[in-house]
Amino acid sequence: MQEPTSPHHRGAELVYTVDTGEPLITIPSTAAGEPERSNGRQIRRAVTIHDARPRRDQLDLDREGFVLLDQRTRVRDLHDPSELRARYDGELTRLLVRAMTREGGPVERVDHVHVFDHTARAGSPALRESLRVREPVQRVHNDYTPRSAVQRVRDCLPPAEADARLRRRFAIVNLWRSIAGVVEDRPLAVCDARSVAPGDLLVSQRRAPDRVGETYRVAYNPAHRWSYFPAMRPEELLLIKSYDSATDGRARFTPHTAFVDAEAPPDAAPRQSLESRAFVFFAG
Length: 284
Known about the structure:
Elements: E1 10-17, E2 24-27, E3 37-38, E4 42-51, E5 66-70, H1 81-99, E6 110-122, H2 125-131, E7 141-142, H3 146-156, H4 159-165, E8 170-178, E9 188-191, E10 201-207, E11 212-218, E12 226-228, E13 236-244, E14 256-258, E15 272-282
Parallel strand pairs: 2-10, 4-12
Antiparallel strand pairs: 1-4, 2-3, 5-13, 6-15, 7-11, 8-13, 8-15, 9-12, 9-14, 10-11
């Protein structure tokens, strides 16, 4: 499909990982102010990041791996964990049930949604210190590998329920939004899942204070097709499919990264965002 013309297409340098054969380790940033640490060789590559707004209604989670939806939350304080559990989790659950039922294709009933994580990030050190939130990830990555996706289900659910759920198809979706005005600083770029080759995905052990998991870092491939949604508002929610257990050709992994928009206003407010993660379990 030809990319619609838009004045908001961006040229940017994205940070990729070079596959040297070295085992990769990532220690994520923390809300206490510790920056991300990682080994391996990284390289910057110039890419074009396309404005996806003109084709917003044509996107599909099972094809490109990402969609933008309208979602006005009724949560007053998105930094309050108790309010997130009491109200926001339910909002996301209802939205995912609708979003994961495809129109015009085979309908797969969503059996259960389980929201299991909320991570707030901010673009400036001062905000991170005052709000106790983490830094944006400015390296091309995907949140889960097949191994870590299964392990995360086992981490979050009782053993018997996890065993039963894992016998059927499941997906993990990242739901990303602005929590402080329009995003101009360090917007999020997403890569069309169809443009990612298996060899682009490099396993990296993820060593957090509470657990050890795996993510994918990503090697550069000129075939990658990058998109973003300019000026995302707090009333919008970007859904990114981080994993799908189905192996029938639909989107399974959707790499993404924050990037520096060279055309952002010099007085752009630092980005503040909230990303939530959820399991979507399917029936039959």
